[in-house]
Design goal:
This protein is α/β, with parallel strands linked by helices. It has two domains: 279 residues, 3-Layer(aba) Sandwich (Aminopeptidase), CATH 3.40.630.10; 121 residues, Alpha-Beta Plaits. Helix content is 33%, strand content 24%. It contains ten helices and 17 strands. It has a six-stranded mixed beta sheet. The protein has a four-stranded antiparallel beta sheet with strand order 11-13-9-14, with helices on one face. Strands 4-5-17 form a three-stranded antiparallel beta sheet. Strand 1 and strand 2 form a beta hairpin. Helix 2 crosses helix 4, helix 4 crosses helix 10 and helix 8 crosses helix 10. The longest helix has 20 residues. The protein is elongated and about 85 Å long. Its cofactor is Zn(2+); Co(2+). Keywords: Aminotransferase, Cobalt, Hydrolase, Metal-binding, Transferase, Zinc. One of its GO terms (molecular function) is hydrolase activity. Belongs to the peptidase M20A family. This is Diaminopimelate aminotransferase.
Length: 407
Amino acid sequence: MSKELLTKIESLETPMVEALGEMISYPAISPLDGGEGEFHKAQYLLKKIKELGFEDVKVYASSDPQAAGGERPNIIVRFPGRSGRRLWIVVHTDVVPEGERSLWETDPFKAVVKDGRIYGRGVNDNGQEVIASLYGLFAIKELGLTPEYEVCLAFVADEEVGSTHGIKYLIKKGLFDKDDLVVVPDMGTEEADFIEIAEKSICWMEFTVEGKQVHASLPNLGVNACRAANGFAASLDEALHAAFPETDKLFDPAESTFEPTRRRANVANINTVPGVEVFCFDCRVLPTVPLEDVKKVVEAEIKKAQEKYGVKITYRFPQYEEAPEPTAEDAPVVTELLAAVKKVFPKVAPKVGGVGGGTCGAYFRRAGIPAVVWGQESDCAHMPNEYTKIEHLLNEAKVFALMMLGR
């Protein structure tokens, strides 16, 4: 049965490549990034879904007056299985802007097929998964097979700018259940050898250090914000690492990370002592460490620095996301995905682990729904000349179809 299914998917290569190429000609860029949203792409997908013979299709549209059609459509395709349990494959239809057009060798919104690759904005992120999941299910339907699970394909909006109109909207609608198996193929490796089940908390901090600006020849008349910022940043770096030395082998790197990153320009000339310095830390914190504990260390170091340097230090969180509980390594969605991956990639030993933070799987885990993130992807998302390998497109369709069919 599995062999017949995989052979069927291989025979669908041409229509799959054509469908992916057609789909990316509809830019689905968020209004927040200057686009019109997913409406036109959704209309194309609905037409394609109908052509493929699927009948149980519903659109859940989130209202957005700034978008074409006044809405951000989420398409749900359902296909009955032997059991009442549901398998969801959740992929997004929106894309990021093309960026600097001159860096593209082709039109980003006109697919080019060359040397086993398809080029265009969104073919990798997340177009190949839209087509792979749809045609994986189509192969099952065409062979007259009955999946183990009720298969639910969710083609969602708004992933690139926060998922307010997409996954978060559907979770609020109550579409998902804690017994569901949820796969979010929004991240992957070239070798298809990593299944993400956990992520770290994300804590971005921006500090403003205020002193007093003066001429550099008379520093005694001012308060050097640059010196204070340098000293404070170094002390905070050391304090955070000392306070949270825990490790977790699920992650790579295994420890919490606290990285000084962006620093804004201060004065334009050399001979002025700056009165204001603004800099940031990017912290990726193990789920076992409450972010409130990180905040306590930060505030203690601020107090020390203010007393030592005579400055005022304030801070804000551009991002502050507490990590949800990881998906269990032995959860059904993990074991089913592992089994399917091993059938398609018999020489691969997939690793199950965690990432630094920021996947859509977190929205489901936060709602108490086990979810995994997996895909076979080239590392070119959001880049000029984005591409996907046709081989990856077919392999993902095979893995998804095998998961649907069950063991």
